[in-house]
Every structure is written in C-alpha cells, then in structure tokens.
Write a structure and sequence with these properties.
Strand content: 15-25%
Pfam families: CoA_trans
Protein name: 3-oxoacid CoA-transferase subunit B
Number of helices: 4
Structural class: alpha/beta
Oligomer: single chain
CATH topology of one domain: Glutaconate Coenzyme A-transferase
Helix content: 10-25%
Keywords: Transferase
Family: Belongs to the 3-oxoacid CoA-transferase subunit B family.
CATH superfamily of one domain: Glutaconate Coenzyme A-transferase
GO molecular function, one term: CoA-transferase activity
Order of helices and strands: HEEEEHEEEHEEEEEHE
Number of strands: 13
Radius of gyration: 17 Å
Shape: globular
C-alpha cells in the first residue's frame, strides 16, 4: 500500500500542463514535490500565493513564506503574493482547474466531510467551503480507513458536510477510485493490494469492472 508521499505521487499524475491547482492542507501539499517532467502548473494557496514550489530543504526555510496550513514553502520564478480577497476571487470565479483536498469522510455520492471532528475544538470550515462550491474538478487525498480501522469511504457521511456531490476522484493508500452513479468505481490498485483488500476497507458500494491494473507511480 501507499504512504502519504505515494498518494501525492499518484495524484501528481493527474496534473495537466497549464493547470492552476489549489492544494489543501495535509497530504495535498506534498503534490508540489512530484510535478511530472515536461509540464508546467501553477499551485495556488488560499492564504494568497500563486506559484508555490516544493517544500524547502532543512535550513533553507523562510518563516514569512507559508501555505494555508502555516507550513514553510518555496516559490517558483514569477510567483505572486496577494490578499485573501483576491485569492478567494480566483476560487469563487472558477479560475482554479483542479482542487486537491484531504478528507475525513467521502460518501458514495461524492459528498465530502473534512472540517470538523466531534469533541475537538476547530477554528471553522475555512476556505474548504468555497473550494468545494466553486471547483468542478476535486480530487481527495486520504487514507482509506481511520485509525480505528473503519472505512472512510461511506454510503453516507456521518460528520458535518463540507460539500455535496462534488468529489470526482479519490486516491487512498489502497486505491484510485472515481465517484460515479451508484458508488465508487475502482480504477487502480495500490502496489501489493488486492481487490478483496479494497472491498473489505470500503463501506460504500464498490464497483469493480474488468481487470483492475496496479498503480504505476513513476
């Protein structure tokens, strides 16, 4: 199965030349480290950065240059900085081609819950609400099960929703799946993972059609 970097590497293969991409907090931020050769993409962060690069090497961090998750980042030549109003104008104006988000739960109809955990203090939904309401192409990066071993790919989300019927694809440590009418369609298996492993870890309806290839990350 994949680790967090493996999930990010697989998602990076979904990038296309010329894309403007918003990276959410957590696993999605790692995607900037794995841009395929031969393409150019612009990474946008909702705190007001366009042109994010990979994470800095140890000792080269600049505490004034951060992403929405307050992690230090690098910037590419030509990068720009602006206020949150302009950042959300980009998002709400649908100028972002691809949004990559983490999630705590995804339903088989494409609903996403990624902002509140019962019993824990949270600052609020943040920009996720705008991202899921405005984006036409959303990929979720997450582990297939939670720490208790229970599925995070559900028939219906149990946590408060961030968005409804908005998720297009999901990349987990076990699989690449597409949200279609009727459930989660399995597209690829993580290296060393069987269809039965994925079926056992998926509460929602898993659709398996034909031969399911193993992921190629490189």
């Amino acid at each position: 199965m994949l680790d967090k970097n493996g999930i990010a590497r697989r998602i990076a293969k979904e990038l296309q030349d010329g894309y403007f991409v918003n990276l959410g907090i957590g696993i999605p931020t790692l995607v900037a480290n794995y841009i395929p050769q031969g393409i150019e993409v612009e990474f946008q962060s909702e705190n007001g950065v366009l042109g994010m690069g990979p994470f800095p090497f140890e000792g080269e961090e600049d505490a004034d240059i951060i992403n929405a998750g307050k992690q230090t980042i690098t910037t590419m030549p030509g990068a720009s900085f602006f206020d949150s109003a302009m950042s959300f104008g980009m998002i709400r104006g649908q100028h972002v081609d691809l949004t990559i988000l983490g999630a705590m739960e995804v339903s088989e109809s494409g609903d996403i819950a990624n902002w509140k955990i019962p019993g824990r203090m949270v600052k609020g939904m943040g920009g996720a609400m705008d991202l899921v309401a405005s984006a036409e192409n959303i990929i979720v990066a997450m582990m297939h099960t939670n720490k208790a071993g229970k599925s995070k790919l559900l028939k219906a989300c149990s946590l408060p929703l961030t968005g409804v019927n908005c998720v297009k694809k999901i990349v987990t440590n076990l699989a690449l799946l597409e949200v279609v009418d009727g459930g989660f369609r399995l597209l690829e298996r993580a290296p060393g993972v069987s269809i039965e492993d994925i079926r056992k870890a998926t509460e929602g309806n898993l659709i398996v059609e034909g031969e399911i290839p193993e992921m190629i990350l490189d």
